[in-house]
Amino acid sequence: MANFFDASDISPSKKRILQSALTLFVEKGFFNTSIPDLVEHSGVSTGSIYHAFKDKEALATELMHHLLATIEAEQADILARHQTVKARYFALVEWMLRFAEAYPDVEQFILYARHKEFMPSVKPICSAKPFMTLRDVILEGQETGVLRQMDVMVASSIAYGSVLRLIQLYLDGVLSTPLMTHFDELTEAAWRALAAE
Amino acid sequence: MANFFDASDISPSKKRILQSALTLFVEKGFFNTSIPDLVEHSGVSTGSIYHAFKDKEALATELMHHLLATIEAEQADILARHQTVKARYFALVEWMLRFAEAYPDVEQFILYARHKEFMPSVKPICSAKPFMTLRDVILEGQETGVLRQMDVMVASSIAYGSVLRLIQLYLDGVLSTPLMTHFDELTEAAWRALAAE
DNA sequence: GTCTATACTCAGATAGAC
DNA sequence: GTCTATCTGAGTATAGAC
């Protein structure tokens, strides 16, 4: 899961702009990143940026789109490799933790940027497909009877809220140990809360 | 828990500015709220705003300070009224849910604004006192043996991450039912994950 | 498609009268 | 302490040559 912009038909300069945008938006935030900042960091001129993207907002939107696409692909891959609900849940959590450790900047941007502040048209992140995928695994568990009956959103909050919270603590520098250190404790506790008696 | 700026020695116009700032920062975000916006909404002039606050960032910082102070006071109140760890945890969660329903805007600003983007000097929110207080209840439970031994941060993530996640879903409009509907399911599941055998 | 130069807007902040 | 008027600069976006 190396490069987020490898896919398809992106021109080289567009790729460099997206790469710089990811770095700078994460580091300083969308509003604190000016076009001149992007020009300096990417080595691509103002004119070319506006040739490649309608405006700054469109640039952010497209960036978001690419990141989500990569994430969706990885999730699909995990689901394909694991069949039972328990295996899927554990594998997805492991992937979430590893992803956050490998790409803290991307994780930060995806999870905690206030997207609607600079992309008014885009839907809230938790309505995005990757979050649906996570929820669907819980739903599947409830339907097959592996997980106890309760409101799906509540069950999902237990299942992933704890994980996301730990990731946030990690990203904020509160955690002193690597994320994966806590994989077993975390998943076993969550599973205890969710599994059918 | 009505007014966040009632306390102490705030001048009337300062109070109006803070009130407007809370509304607008939440509605449109810090960067999308201009000083002219604040002037129009509060009815206080530019000059008076800059008389009351050093600059826009200081305004945001002071706003944050007031909100956190109110929250700390309410938490202290809850702890004073409940003695056992279980009672305290359940009461704190109930308060979190009720608070989010009563003051969605404040909750949104406290939890999900990217504070460091406009208040570079302020520490991450999860290092703030209210979050310490939540964690300390878990710590107390582990020390008294009511809760099972595990990393405190992991236990806290289970205990409150699920709650915060549900709140986020609520604030994003994904939940169709009132938050308190899920109080029992949520707390019982979390407790199941955390309680000693 | 890429660049440089530039136009235009409007935000943040200040000066200074009352 | 409150206001109006104003400055200054940064930042988005465009024009137009190559």
UniProtKB/TrEMBL annotation, chains A, B:
<dbReference type="InterPro" id="IPR009057">
    <property type="entry name" value="Homeodomain-like_sf"/>
</dbReference>
<dbReference type="InterPro" id="IPR001647">
    <property type="entry name" value="HTH_TetR"/>
</dbReference>
<protein>
    <submittedName>
        <fullName>TetR/AcrR family transcriptional regulator</fullName>
    </submittedName>
</protein>
<keyword id="KW-0238">DNA-binding</keyword>
<dbReference type="Pfam" id="PF00440">
    <property type="entry name" value="TetR_N"/>
</dbReference>
<dbReference type="GO" id="GO:0003677">
    <property type="term" value="F:DNA binding"/>
</dbReference>
<feature type="DNA-binding region" description="H-T-H motif">
    <location>
        <begin position="34"/>
        <end position="53"/>
    </location>
</feature>
<dbReference type="InterPro" id="IPR023772">
    <property type="entry name" value="DNA-bd_HTH_TetR-type_CS"/>
</dbReference>
<dbReference type="InterPro" id="IPR050109">
    <property type="entry name" value="HTH-type_TetR-like_transc_reg"/>
</dbReference>
<feature type="domain" description="HTH tetR-type">
    <location>
        <begin position="11"/>
        <end position="71"/>
    </location>
</feature>
<dbReference type="InterPro" id="IPR036271">
    <property type="entry name" value="Tet_transcr_reg_TetR-rel_C_sf"/>
</dbReference>
